[in-house]
Amino acid sequence: MKMVTRPTSAAPAPVPSSPRRVLPLFVLSSLVIVLIAVILTSVSFGSVSVPISTIVQILLNGTTLFHFPVTWDASLDVIILQVRLPVVLGAVLVGAALAVAGTLFQGMLRNPLADPYLMGTSSGAALGATIAFVLPFDTVYGSLFPLTPVLAFVGALLTVLFVYALARSGGQTPVIMLLLAGVVVNAILTACQTLILNLWPSNDFGRILGLYNWLSGGIAIVGWESLAVVAGIVLFGLLLAFWLANRLDVFALGEEAAAHLGLHVERTKFLIVIVASLLTAAAVSISGLVGFVGLVTPHCMRLLLGPRHRTLLPASALGGAIFLTLADMLARVLLAPTVIPVGVFTALVGAPFFLFLLRSSKREYKW
């Protein structure tokens, strides 16, 4: 009796596994080390180059815990501690704030194109700066706070609250209404800004140039006092953002699924909008309109670490700080003594790099 053997079916082809994500602790530790190196390098560059070893000794002597012998020109202490370090730390704060704000908006809206200026923050800040430009006085509360950053901060926050109020209907705030309200308000405030500049012409070329530089983006720090105020706001906002990390992960399932899991969707959405807007307003008050940091950095960190916000948020803060600090340094030294607006530099350098990164890893990228 002849036995009939059935042909054995071919073994199924192995399913390609998704690329293994880099260990979060390794990435975060590496980013911290890179940020420290970038800060020291950025402080060392300028009209007078200062060795990094000298910078480290000056900084350690400034803590009063160390007492290295002063073998350098005493004027370097003033240059490092009073001129360069506040600007570099300002770039660190702005980069971290914009990157985290972009991560918050992208996570809440589930939209890869969301950035910190999505809800009209940029136009509100620009209108505030323009009003400061036409007013006859320059400071608030004596000489402690320049008028431009104060009005830019207030304008950015008020605009976001107005957009949120417009989009809210029936106790809910649909995402599409937020986006549309942000676009409309942005157009109106931009028109108001243009109208003000035409109705109040100024022959003061210095003030016109100052407004142009602010709109183009650039770290403007007038002293440690204003930096301390911004640092307090940014650090508070970052802590709140990290506290919202798990809620952002739930948002990835969709608003309906998040509600079924017990998340108070509208309250959480409002908190995310407020925290992201607070970070953005604090950043633009000392940097002007610096684009691309809040859009690019979250995507780059998502490629490395995946979408989990508990690691994505701190990585984005560190990555944004590195990106903007490097951009600010290169904008100052590449064509010295001419200074390139850092907002222009981030767009010219960041956009091609981001396109290359997405194109080379498009099969691995998961939103």
Short description:
The chain is mainly α and 367 residues long.
Question: How does this model look, in words?
Answer:
The chain is an all-alpha fold and 367 residues long. It contains 14 helices and two strands; from the N terminus they run ααααββαααααααααα. It has a two-stranded antiparallel ribbon. The longest helix has 35 residues, at 75-109. Residues 1-20 have low confidence and may be disordered.
Helix content, binned percent: 55-70%
The mean pLDDT is 83
Radius of gyration: 24 Å
Which stretches of 5+ consecutive residues score pLDDT under 50?
1-20
Q: Strand tally, please?
A: 2
Question: What are the secondary-structure elements, in order, as H or E?
Answer: HHHHEEHHHHHHHHHH
Q: Specify the overall morphology.
A: globular
Work out the strand percent: under 5%
Structural class: mainly alpha
Can you summarize the main beta sheet?
2 strands, antiparallel
Helical element count? Answer: 14
Descriptive labels:
367 residues, mainly alpha, two-stranded antiparallel sheet, 2 strands, globular, disordered N terminus
What's the helix and strand layout?
Blueprint: H1 24-44, H2 52-62, H3 75-109, H4 121-134, E1 139-140, E2 145-146, H5 147-167, H6 175-199, H7 205-216, H8 224-243, H9 245-251, H10 255-260, H11 265-287, H12 293-305, H13 309-333, H14 342-360
Antiparallel strand pairs: 1-2
Helix pairs in contact: 1-3, 1-13, 2-3, 3-8, 3-11, 3-12, 3-13, 4-5, 4-6, 4-7, 5-6, 5-11, 8-11, 12-13, 13-14
